[in-house]
Design a protein that fits this description.
Strand content of chain A: under 5%
Shape of chain B: globular
Radius of gyration of chain B: 23 Å
CATH class of the largest domain in chain A: Mainly Alpha
Largest interface: A-B, 39 and 34 residues
CATH superfamily of the largest domain in chain A: MetI-like
Number of strands of chain A: 2
Oligomer: heterodimer
Mean pLDDT of chain B: 89
Number of helices of chain B: 14
Radius of gyration of chain A: 36 Å
Helix content of chain B: 40-55%
Low-confidence stretches of chain A: none
Shape of chain A: elongated
CATH class of the largest domain in chain B: Alpha Beta
CATH architecture of the largest domain in chain B: 3-Layer(aba) Sandwich
CATH architecture of the largest domain in chain A: Orthogonal Bundle
Mean pLDDT of chain A: 91
Strand order of the largest sheet of chain A: 1-2
Number of helices of chain A: 27
Number of domains of chain A: 4
Largest sheet of chain A: 2 strands, antiparallel
Structural class of chain B: alpha/beta
Amino acid sequence: MSDSTASGPVLAADGTPLKRSLARALRMQKLRALMLIAPLLLFVLLTFIAPIADMLFRSVENKIVVTTLPRTVQALQEWDSNSGEAPGEAVFQELYYDMFVAAEAKEHTKLGTRLNYERTGISSLFRSSGRKVDDIGEDHVKAIENASDKALKDEALWFEIMTGGAGAETNDAPLSAGRQRLSNLTDTSFSGDIGFVPGSAISEILPETTQAYTDFALFTAVADNDVVAEEDPWETAFVALATELQADPARLDGYAGPGADALKAAAEAVAGLEPIAFKPAFLDIDKDWGDSENWKTIQIYSPRTTNGYFLNAVDLQKGTDGIEARPENQQIYITLFTRTLIMSLIITGSCILLGYPVAWILANLPTRTANVLMILVLLPFWTSLLVRTSAWKVMLQQQGVINEVLVWLGMVPDEARLVMINNQFGTIVAMTHILLPFMILPMYSVMQTINPTYLRAAKSLGATNWTAFWRVYFPQSVPGIGAGSILVFILAIGYYITPEIVGGTKGVFISNRIAYHISSSLNWGLAAALGTILLVVVLLLYWAYDQIVGIDNVKLG
Amino acid sequence: MKLMNLTALVATTALVAPMAMAADMADEMTIVSWGGAYSKSQLKAYHEPYSEKTGVKIINDESSAEAVAKLRAMNEAGNVTWDVVDVVAADALRLCDEGLAMEIDPEEHLAAAPDGTSAEDDFGDLLVGDCFIPQIVYSTTFGYRTDLVGDNPPTDVCAVFDLETYPGKRALEKRPINNVEWALLCDGVAKEDVYDVLATEEGQEQALAKLDTIKDEVIWWSAGADTPQLLADGEIVMGSTYNGRLFSVIEEQKQPVAMLWDAQVFDLDGWIIPAGLSDERKARALDYIYFATDTQRLADQAKYISYGPARASSAPLVGQHADLGIDMAPHMPTDPENAKNTFLYNYEFWADYRDDIDAKFQAWLAK
């Protein structure tokens, strides 16, 4: 009993412990299995999970406001949106710098489109402002250019002033701030050597001007592929210079770097001018900048993520005092969601009613005949969906086949032909027809497995035909109905093309609005939110179905 | 690091240099359009002569209806496969706003008229937006069944709202644009005030209230082919659609249908070049557009379809239909006889109000 092998590990034939050897074999097996399903897994990940994740992300993503107008958003935090007045000069000054860069990068119209979903008119407000923003401070720009020696008309001198001359001490901070700002704005990288680094002396004396010039330098070198020293600086550099020199001309005292005389001349040139008034300038471009509602929209939608799309998708909106209902004449999505659900249920129900007898006949006929009939069930699958739907148009319209026949038979008077299309009835008929095979096939395969002797046994024990069917046959066919119903319902809830063609106004589904927002209004955020809600509703229903019927009771054959 | 950059540089120069020498333009291009008779007219008038002249292979894609969404998706994926895209002006503005279309300077990139008029003056007001080169003027207007209106054919757009004189269904497009303008016009608003009124809540309600009076008798269409089919089947008395579709119902299919040109809404269709093409492809696309939008080419297109050329200098050159042999000039929406009372699609207004009014319109439709 005290044999040494009993206390030691059991060994495999090659001398390794059996446990380890077994684990290795199992691991190999698992790995092989994983390799086999890897293509499918990858396919599902790439084509299914990733797009859904992307959709979920899009429905809350909202960074465009803060990347396009970072300084404005910052300044706007101080503003009280209930004051009923547009923000003050300080915010407009930030707006000027933001708008200028955004307009150079042609990003301002994107933001205009985005905010126009929330408030009508912002689209053209941004478009017109982007076009005219470089006119702001025109007099000051001219005054600096035409200062006594006209030195600042020279782009090479600007470059020298801003670098502080060869070998001067440099300051990287404005450069990295500018890179960050521009790459956030345009979603492209602004890294790499641009042949310009701001000098540290000048960036201390004229920080705003240095930043404006650095932004210009980055954009010129990276986006336009030009040499910084050979290009005229943006108007923002002049405007910043004028503002800074007017605020405190003494800041140039003691400056001995390159272009000191030119800067002094510029300071003298702008000394006599009024400071640049940004707010009146913007109001001059478009008076809507004075409308506090527009500013409220910018403020409400400034966070990087928003629940605005989801609120919109359930007929709510963001107000200043929290969430509120949308005006009644814009409420549509709840109606469409409920309509989609109810009509999908009706379609599923009519598919069960029509499909059950067909499946029963197929399952109880001799195989040869059943196969021929099966082709008739499958035939519609081989016809284009559009053709089938259009055929229903020909059948159902007022001058269509059915109405013509009814009128000819005298069952319907000519002047009161039945309206069977462009309404809910048309959608239900056409979709029931299209989805019917999805109901018949699972039912048929389940019914085939039901042993006919059960029915005979029931009858021989004295059951009537009905009792035998209802108590014996039907319960066994329920898994087929369950599978068919899930298939049909889930397909129906996301249907798009058939309701679009035969649904008119009362027979369209939520998918039609999703399609509109994807392809026409380009409001992808809202479309994503609607899609997400639809997905959640389907999952919830599936869960409920599992709770009530049990998913084990679903069989496809 | 330096060495690597250098070798990379040498390698790319070695690769690119021979290509650049052989041709600065791509020798294949994908042109996107609407399909059907319209694409055919472009094939005959532009693509075939261009391929003949340059030997470029042109691939046709019929995706213009989804062009905006697809271009945005391509742009996000960083893989733009289209070179020239045919879109309506409103979509072109949207694409330009979104930075998805490149700006084209008409002076630099378009041919002058034969008499030396600059392209900018030749296109005139039709150059809307910075990215869009118009090709044709089309209009959305009404056609009616001549056999269903008795001996009192409509001459006024307000016949659409007159259920007593013209009972029966009518077809309108399932969107607010054009419909609300017509509604206000027929509700007593003066033509020049229509957009001022529409900019107000009350004006929008007024337009929907007017449409409400015929709501039960309207079939709403979303594809341009719907109205011609409904007219041909006698489903409707009158319906709005693009004038070229009505031309083919009337002249090619010889259906008992006539045009009601009153208050037709002019719109433009034309070319854009997607942003972000490589230099060779961009050069090719610009070369194609230079060719396809010259005076003669635009006039040629009118031989195959009844849309008016966008250049003033093309109008006198419009001849006869290539197959039917009828004079095309009287079928042009821009013909003085047809253009007595017209609207021009207000791009600026609809860019702002489209989302808002569409939400209200769809909510009203669903009621």
